């Protein structure tokens, strides 16, 4: 499961995943607002390997039982700093609360503000930080 702050970024991630997935037969679906809910449900019920989406639509799919959290092994928060600054904190927590405690969490962020560090404390056990210097 990959969460992104915008529909556009989620669609961009989906394109990359589909391109990579061609070599591995990996199926990917984007769950984003502004698209047909029934189509999302149909795709998820058919089964996909990777779900990319915005927090609101992903949580909606979980509450409708179309997306089954017990099948999710990796949770990626892309542009975490951006998501928190846009006010997605509660929605991210709602999604996270449905996931298994043993899930692997990957948090990607261009900056490390206090809010992002708080999220690492809340969601991650013994997090490993990989910091890249500015060019």
TrEMBL record:
Pfam families reported for this sequence: DEAD
Keyword set, alphabetical order: ATP-binding, Helicase, Hydrolase, Nucleotide-binding
Helicase ATP-binding domain mapped to chain residues: 1-130
Lineage top rank: taxon: Eukaryota
Keyword Flavoprotein: no
Molecular function GO terms recorded: ATP binding; helicase activity; hydrolase activity; nucleic acid binding
Family annotation (InterPro entries): DEAD/DEAH_box_helicase_dom (IPR011545), Helicase_ATP-bd (IPR014001), P-loop_NTPase (IPR027417), RNA-helicase_DEAD-box_CS (IPR000629)
Protein name: Helicase ATP-binding domain-containing protein
Species assigned in the record: Oppiella nova
Upper lineage: Eukaryota, Metazoa, Ecdysozoa, Arthropoda, Chelicerata
């Amino acid at each position: 499961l990959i969460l992104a702050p915008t529909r556009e970024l989620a669609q961009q991630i989906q394109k990359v995943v589909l391109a990579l997935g061609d070599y591995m037969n990996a199926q990917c679906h984007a769950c984003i607002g502004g698209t047909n809910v029934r189509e999302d449900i149909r795709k998820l019920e058919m089964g996909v390997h990777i779900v990319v989406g915005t927090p609101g639509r992903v949580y909606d799919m979980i509450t409708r039982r179309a997306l089954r959290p017990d099948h999710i092994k990796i949770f990626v928060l892309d542009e975490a700093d951006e998501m928190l600054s846009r006010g997605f904190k509660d929605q991210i927590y709602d999604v996270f609360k449905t996931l298994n405690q043993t899930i692997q969490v990957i948090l990607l962020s261009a900056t490390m503000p206090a809010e992002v560090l708080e999220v690492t404390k809340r969601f991650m056990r013994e997090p490993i930080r990989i910091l890249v210097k500015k060019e």
